[in-house]
Input
Amino acid sequence: MKLADDEKAMLDGRQGPARQRAMDLLVRYGEALGAERLVDTNNVCATVGATTPFLRDWAAEHPGGLDAVFSEFSLDSAEVLEIPKVKAYTCHVQQGIDPEHAVEQGVSPQLVQLYRKGEAFMGRIGVQLLNTCAPYQVGNVPVKGEHCAWMESSAVIYCNGALGARTNAEGRESAGAAMLTGKIPYWGYHLHGNRLGTHLVEIEVEVKDTADWGLLGYYIGEVVQEQIPVLNGIGHVPNLARLKHFGAAAASSGGVEMYHVVGITPEAPSLAAAFGGRKPLATLKYGAAERRRAYEQVNSTGRDRQVDYVMLGCPHYSLEQIWEACQLLEGQRVHASTSLWIFTPSAIKQIADRNGYTKIISDAGGVLMTDNCSAFGRVMPKGTKVAAVDSAKQAHYLPAIMGVQAWFGTTAECIQAAVTGRWSGGMR
Ligand code: F3S
Output
């Protein structure tokens, strides 16, 4: 790979051992990918701390603390390096626990202490503690064409498809190296030619609410896998939440990281522009039969109608979604044998507190949580066997990760399940 002077200086160790390791990692990574050079980035989203059970156990026993965690798991260095301040603007993705709701989540005080240490470490090196899988909801909104280095599949697809910014799905190591150097290999979705559509999807049914968009994403992901769908014929302009649910679902059932919606997303002013003048590899349709198929697949684990747990906020809820949920919930009580947890970024929760939404939720017997989610943090109310969700992504992962049944439906159906304790949703 050709390196610029500042990159050579980091690789030679002139900016300290941690940046040297980071640059060495990026060069090895870039060469393995066939990248010819690196590109500057000033927008990284990554997990840094001890966010998984394995890392927590490792960190608890290692005397080197969070510097050791970062050295070993973000820089591939067994030697404990002192981690300097980041060069690139970096936001933390998720923390794995909500320290304010540790009791409900069954999290030990030791774990909360480790979380606090992680927070202090990130503050010291300059990582922004957004602690969300949806950073674009709380101020990190890269512009079209901006080179980013983001982790988390639902964020990556939003960054590429909805915003027209450019990122590959980075891992902890490449994102860790990017934050210390301000560089990332120039390959994949950083290149215009790799962002053009491959599959045309003709939309033949109405796609309106977030559940509709989730089903559409789930269907498309399964069919196109890691290719780039171009949606044509969307009748209703979606909002942030709908594109968010679409992308999260497409990235779960397949590995979609980029898409176009003709006339709506930034790189698809027309069908021709979305394909860059090339012919689609295949043309698909999304009609009533395809929608039904997606619905049945997303609901394939749901059997028992009694619901123990209603989980909303995958990806993390926007303020608008909290407002909508509160309108559905206000004045009612969550059923005695059911729990309602709603997940959102902590920055949004502060506004929800001030707007009285947190109180509406807690008066009803639910909880507004931050910093994690059930699938990522592996946290659910004790004894949960049946969950209800309005996210196709969470319906995909909860049964696989937590071994529970999951019902998928609209937000209104989920709130109804929370209040009645029973699933009465169905294909509309
Ligand atoms: Fe976010 Fe957890 Fe869903 S990380 S996208 S809320 S699975």
